[in-house]
């Protein structure tokens, strides 16, 4: 039995599939999204570094609630629905895309992204994504590695520090 356990531990330790990607730990980047307050907070090095206003999903296309991970990142993302090239002023995804794994998707359905309509920040207008001003999403994009965990909550009167402590980011 002991040799079997040793064998399994050895296989897992050298396996190319374990661990998958980066595994953030306390102090690593963490995001908290409040759909009720329409804000995203960036926690890093056990402190709230910044909070930005966002747009969220509209009725019928609500932003999913839960704990997710950033699994895709792209500069000047291509908008598949309307066949709009990345970098185009008509592209509603703006200058950056950080896709997350909500509802068993591949990070290409739900994401944090920029916008070509900054006047809509603060409103419920998206198809479930989190929309930010391009300059804000570009700042965040540089600081968020793949594997970053994010909590999306609909709690009102959001206490970011308390939630960050509860989820081990602080």
Description:
The chain is of the alpha/beta class and 170 residues long. The chain contains 3 helices and 10 strands. The longest helix is centred in the first third of the chain and has 13 residues, at 2-14. The radius of gyration is 18 Å and the shape is globular. Mean pLDDT is 87; it is low at 4-24.
Rg (C-alpha, Å):
18 Å
Mean pLDDT: 87
Q: Total helix count?
A: 3
Shape type? globular
Name the helix and strand elements from N-terminus to C-terminus, one letter apiece: HEEEEEEEEEHEH
**Helix- and strand-based class?**
alpha/beta
Helix content: 10-25%
Low-confidence stretches: 4-24
Strand order of the largest sheet: 3-2-1-10-5-6-7-9
Task: Map the helices and strands.
Blueprint: H1 2-14, E1 30-34, E2 39-44, E3 47-53, E4 56-57, E5 66-75, E6 96-100, E7 110-113, E8 124-126, E9 130-131, H2 134-143, E10 149-153, H3 160-166
Parallel strand pairs: 1-10, 4-8, 7-9
Antiparallel strand pairs: 1-2, 2-3, 5-6, 5-10, 6-7
In a nutshell, what does this entry contain?
The protein is of the alpha/beta class.
Notable characteristics:
single chain; 170 residues; alpha/beta; 3 helices
